[in-house]
Write a structure and sequence with these properties.
The chain is of the alpha+beta class. It has helices at residues 28-39, 60-73, 112-121, 160-175, 189-200, 209-220, 253-265, 270-286, 328-343, 350-354, 432-450, 463-469; strands at residues 24-25, 46-54, 79-80, 89-92, 102-106, 132-140, 143-151, 244-251, 290-297, 314-321, 368-374, 387-391, 402-410, 416-426. The protein is built from twelve helices and 14 strands. A six-stranded mixed beta sheet has the order 8-14-13-11-9-10.
Length: 476
């Protein structure tokens, strides 16, 4: 009889504090980011926030002490990532040795935009630098701008809320001369890393979860076109500057509500409906039917991770075959199925996947991405307290050809309040007029889908919008 492996009950590892090994590997999301950062410009992966604090005298010593407190609390903010003979590793610097210097400089309203932009654009050397820095621009005794910059290897979008919350808690405590009285974190990012690797197992084991995920992606992406060509782009050159710009995207509460109804009818999510529209738009722009899109997964699949600062998010690919959908209903069903499958296989590093695909390693794994996040309901302002306003950083990096970053919003009773965001585009590929036309095409396609269109896929593409884009390559 054939020798099959004995199937035993699978016991999921517990997420708890564990002793640190001599060699702490990167988490899967960090591994992807480490290689991406080394392949291009490290500053492309800087995550920055600039907030204006006004309406009350700001204690600069308390603010600097609060930043130190946050760095002490969250290990990824004091971790560097050197290369070793067996791959990159995490080296957590002890809090007492983590010298995060908060720059404090005088500024004027005229100087401020340049000072923010210059500070945000400075790259990190992941192998030696701590991946976090801070600058305070003082405009007056009751008016300062705090700029925080971290490398994406150590932080993701969901980390911003706990980071800013902990910073506010620490600042209020330091104002009174006391350390912050927050509860200790139940686990650290290093514990998460080891837990994740215990779940995935080793690639040398053909039955491990890591190997099964790699096998899924190698099969799912086999035979796809290596590069999508956009006729409206200035150049199809893969290697280019990542300087980018944005065009706003807005859908009303009425359209938002209709999209949710359409998603419910298709047993899908709002993201899946938007992905279906995006796939049709990308197919029209590239004159193709085999489309690979990307989206992001939060990666925080345990309640103990909610309050951690770190990089848990990862890209997953969604390959959509427009030629295999006879109508809109079949397209939505296909997008639902492949998206669910992608979400079930989120942990394969890009470098390892590239080696499994029969295509030039220089070809991008994807060129178009759509990310949907859920917005938070803003808290009402409290009279007599600090006013905190987020400011633009002046730096936009377009690392992909087509990128939509959208936020779904709900009011205080949970009713749909609209979807908004930006289209990020590389200025090396598209001029502002073309970018605006791409947004118009996407917006019109989404609205047709929300309106209940059930015919062939051609009926989703407004001919007038498409004609406005086609046939205009190389515009300046």
């Amino acid at each position: 009889m054939p020798n099959y492996p004995v199937l035993q009950a699978i016991r999921r590892p517990e997420l708890v504090r564990v002793p640190r090994p001599a060699r702490l590997p990167l988490a899967p999301a960090q591994e992807r980011m480490w290689h991406a950062s080394r392949a291009g410009s490290s500053s492309d992966w800087n995550v920055a926030r600039a907030v204006r604090i006004s309406g009350h005298a700001v204690s600069l010593p308390a603010l600097a002490a609060a930043i130190d407190d946050v760095v002490d609390r969250h290990e990824p903010l004091r971790t560097c990532y050197p290369a070793t003979g067996s791959g990159p590793v995490q080296v957590v610097v002890p809090a007492a040795e983590a010298a995060i210097v908060t720059e404090i400089i005088a500024s004027t309203e005229v100087e401020l935009p340049c000072q923010i932009k210059e500070f945000v654009a400075v790259p990190f050397d992941m192998t030696t630098d701590l991946p976090f820095r801070a600058r305070v621009c003082v405009l007056g005794p009751q008016d300062v701008v705090l700029i925080l910059v971290a490398h994406h290897i150590s932080i993701d979008g969901r980390s911003v809320a706990p980071l800013m919350r902990d910073l506010a808690t620490a600042y209020l405590a330091r104002q009174t001369g006391l350390p912050p009285g927050w509860s200790p974190l139940p686990v650290d990012y290093a514990d998460y890393t080891l837990w994740k690797h215990a779940q995935l197992g080793d690639y040398s084991d053909e039955w491990s979860r890591a190997t099964q995920q790699l096998r899924y992606w190698a099969n799912a992406l086999a035979g796809r076109p290596p590069v999508l060509e956009f006729a409206c782009a200035r150049s199809a050159d893969i290697a280019r500057d990542t300087a980018g710009a944005t065009v706003p995207v807005v859908f009303s509460a009425v359209v938002h509500t209709a999209l949710l109804v359409r998603a419910q009818q298709a047993r899908a999510s709002l993201l899946m409906v938007l992905q279906a529209a995006f796939a049709v738009v990308v197919g029209a722009l590239a004159d193709g039917t085999d489309i690979t899109l990307a989206t992001a997964v939060a990666g925080r699949d345990h309640r103990l991770l909610d309050d951690l600062v770190g990089n848990f998010a990862d890209d997953v690919l969604v390959r959509i075959r427009l030629d295999r959908a006879a109508d809109v209903g079949e397209l939505l069903d296909q997008v639902r199925r492949v998206t669910l499958a992608a979400f079930a296989h989120p942990d394969t590093p890009n470098q390892r996947l590239r080696r499994c695909l029969l295509q030039d390693a220089g070809c991008p794994l994807f060129q178009a991405t759509l990310i949907l996040q859920r917005g938070t309901v803003p808290e009402p302002a409290c009279p007599g307290t600090l006013t905190i306003t987020e400011l633009p950083t002046g730096v936009t990096r377009a690392k992909h050809d087509l990128e939509f970053g959208l936020v779904e919003r709900y009011d205080r009773v949970g009713a749909p309040a609209g979807v908004d965001g930006v289209f990020i585009y590389p200025t090396a590929l598209f001029d502002q007029t073309t970018a605006a036309e791409i947004v118009a095409l996407f917006t019109a396609t989404v609205e047709i889908l929300a309106d209940g269109c059930r015919g062939p896929l051609d009926s989703l593409v407004p001919e007038a919008s498409l004609r406005a884009i086609r046939g205009k390559p190389g515009r300046d």
